[in-house]
């Protein structure tokens, strides 16, 4: 009886399942991929992976390569190669002036302001006025950071943003030689 019911089941349901599957169109034919209307821009500066992280309990620094040291971090010089850090913790995207910068995910604006640039600017760069900066919290202690934005900023502190919202427009404010977006993802800290 069990064998008979399995045969009956497969004779009844198998043609229905096969008909259903053959009637389905491939996903990309139903919803083809449409590339974004904006251009993609090259990265012109990468993240400095020698950015040190500090263990506040014992004041030791751990470099990206695993070397520990407890001397002062000397920027931009190095002492025996142990304290090297060029100060660049993000990715720079070279693009034309005033390209809209959009939020990669839903979030909450933690910082949106023009503030004085680093003093002195790294590499002896002459600053271009106050630097436009936006920092967005995306939850789970992740933050996206945008530097060198032109006025006006499209968001304010305390505002909620959604994926694709325009935050502002790229520029060359602060310590920037040319027009670009400095972009970072930070974990566990935003300032």
UniProtKB/TrEMBL annotation:
- Would I find Iron-sulfur among this entry's keywords? no
| Pfam families for this protein | Peptidase_M23 (PF01551)
Q: Which UniProt keywords apply?
A: Signal
Stretches assigned to the M23ase beta-sheet core domain: 87-189
Q: Which organism is it from?
A: marine metagenome
- Asked if Signal is a keyword of the record, the answer is yes
Give an example GO molecular function: metalloendopeptidase activity
* Name of the featured protein: M23ase beta-sheet core domain-containing protein
**Signal peptide interval:** none
Checking InterPro entries in the record gives: Cell_wall_metabolism_enzyme, Dup_hybrid_motif, M23ase_b-sheet_dom
Task: Kindly give the Gene3D superfamilies that the UniProt entry links to this protein.
Answer: Glucose Permease (Domain IIA)
């Amino acid at each position: 009886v069990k064998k008979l019911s399995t045969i009956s089941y497969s004779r009844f349901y198998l043609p229905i399942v096969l008909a259903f599957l053959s009637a389905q169109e491939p996903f990309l034919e139903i919803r083809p991929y449409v590339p974004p209307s904006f251009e993609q821009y090259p990265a012109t500066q990468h993240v400095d992976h020698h950015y040190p992280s500090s263990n506040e309990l014992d004041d030791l620094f751990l470099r990206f390569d695993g070397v520990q040291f407890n001397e002062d971090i000397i920027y931009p010089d190095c002492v025996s190669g142990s304290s090297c850090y060029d100060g660049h913790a993000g990715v720079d995207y070279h693009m034309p002036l005033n390209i809209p910068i959009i939020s990669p995910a839903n979030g909450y604006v933690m910082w949106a302001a023009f503030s004085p640039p680093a003093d002195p600017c790294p590499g002896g760069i002459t600053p271009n006025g106050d630097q436009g900066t936006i920092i967005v919290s995306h939850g789970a202690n992740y933050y996206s950071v945008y530097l060198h934005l032109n006025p006006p900023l499209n968001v304010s502190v305390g505002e909620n943003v959604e994926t694709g919202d325009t935050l502002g427009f790229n520029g060359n404010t602060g310590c920037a030689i040319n027009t670009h977006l400095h972009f970072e993802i930070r974990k566990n800290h935003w300032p």
